[in-house]
Amino acid sequence: MMAGIPVLAATAPLDSRDVCLEPPAVAMVWTGPDRPHETVAVPGVVLRRGETLVAIELAMACASDAQVVTGHRAQRPPLVLGHEFVGRVVDVADGVRAVDGATVSIGDRIVWSATVGCRDCDRCRRGLPQRCRALIAYGHERLQPRWELTGGFATHAHLRPGTAIVRVGETLPAEVLAPATCGTATAWAALESADEVLDVNGAAMLVLGAGLVGITACAMASDRGATVVVADPDPARRALAARFGAARTVDPDAPGAIDDALAGIGAPEYEIVLEASGAARAQRAAVDTVGVGGVVVLVGAPSAEALAVDAERLVRELITIRGVQDYAPRHLDRAVGYLRERGTAHPFLELVNARYPLAQIDQALAAAAAGTSVRVAVDPRDARRRR
User: Fold this and answer.
1) Contact 63, 359 (CB under 8 A)
2) Backbone dihedral region of 384: left (phi > 0), alpha (psi from -120 to 50 degrees) or beta?
3) Within a 10 A sphere around the Cβ of 315, how many other Cβ atoms?
4) What is the SS3 assignment for 70?
5) pTM of the prediction?
6) Domain 16-172+343-386, what fold?
């Protein structure tokens, strides 16, 4: 029993070994909506074939984490939240390889996928591991016997077999790398999805929402020669988008602003519209705004409202609507590659302008819910030193 959190007894698998942690790992456990996190010490893990133990360097608190703790996104406690992270390998079982095929070794600085597919079901075989029928999602799994280090709000993470691992080197700051495991890789996946219909290079593109995904997609697309208009009601977010390559930024609530921006970039119509806010009205605007033969990419879409579309217009104007949820391993690898090349060309470091120690996870999540920062950092290093 850990601080009122029941943990069932379990027998260690035969193909495994005990790894003692001295001092013990620390995990911040969410036990229910609007309740403070509980601190749990984890003195060791059972490391099985294909698994990896990572000391977390930095994690990020995002709006989806905040929605869980306030009860606006359904999850079953107890669990360790956090799905954006960077860390260093402190132990690794045999047979673990990175996405590029290299052997993962102790001391490697890595990022890893927020989800894990089984590699065997029909969806995994179709190249959709993020929608695996037996999906594991870090930061969303209930605590289990011998698997307590399930999310990013901890000093360590216990990675399951099949986790996509990308080695990241020592140069880029943790604040730039940690978001790669969610927003950056998702932005890459969204542009790849658009590319399968219409070449992003040189396209006239509208991005609705200047959060992490929208701003990052703007940077990636503009680096490829696209002319990007970014719409967001927050003037601070619009100013930020301009620094990430947006040719125009507009308030979507201002009448005619999106059409005026199109005229301002000298394009006849928006060929690609990427909806990255999840707001129902933005989803409707995305479908209404895209031009003939264009593609709409909806990312995430947590809105509970149904999206009504004019089917006759979709057919007549040859419009494609695509959905993107999370990403596949190749997207994470290519997103990190993009950051290596362009991570200092855009102010990615400035997207993280609030930082909290692990012990103040409740304050960090409150800051994430406030929305004044694109990302809020959670630093576990003090927790490791204190124990």
Assistant:
1) no
2) alpha
3) 9
4) coil
5) 0.93
6) Quinone Oxidoreductase; Chain A, domain 1 (3.90.180)
Residues 6+ apart with CB under 8 A from 145: 7, 8, 9, 10
Q: Report the side by side order of strands in the sheet with 204-208.
A: 248-250, 227-231, 204-208, 270-275, 290-299, 320-324
From first CA to last CA, the distance across the chain in angstroms is 20
In degrees, rounded to 5, the angle at the alpha carbon of residue 272 between the alpha carbons of residues 313 and 115 is 110
Spatial contact of 153 and 17, defined as CB atoms under 8 Å apart:
no
Q: Over the stretch 26-49, which tens digit does the pLDDT of each residue have?
A: 999 999 988 999 999 999 999 999
Q: Which pair of structure tokens corresponds to residue 332? A: 């994470």
pLDDT recorded at residue 378: 97
| Residue 187 contacts residue 210 (beta carbons within 8 Å) | no
Alpha carbons 252 and 120: distance in angstroms, whole number: 44
Strand partners, 109: 88
**Cβ atoms of residues 110 and 166 within 8 Å:** yes
- Residue at 227: amino acid letter: T
pLDDT digits (tens, 9 = 90+) for 310-346: 999 999 999 999 999 999 999 999 999 999 999 999 9
What residue ranges of the chain are covered by domains with CATH 3.40.50.720? 184-324
Q: What DSSP character marks residue 104?
A: P
Task: Identify the bridge partners of residue 378 per DSSP, sorted by sequence position.
Answer: 59, 356
Q: What are the residue ranges of CATH 3.90.180.10 in the chain?
A: 16-172+343-386
User: 184-324 domain in CATH 3.40.50.720?
Assistant: yes
Q: How far is the CA of 90 from the CAs of 39, 59, 306, 353, in angstroms?
A: 22, 17, 46, 29
CA 248 to chain centre: 26
Helix, strand, coil shares of the chain, percent, nearest 5, are 30, 30, 40
Give the SS3 label for residue 279: coil
**Mean pLDDT value across the chain:** 93
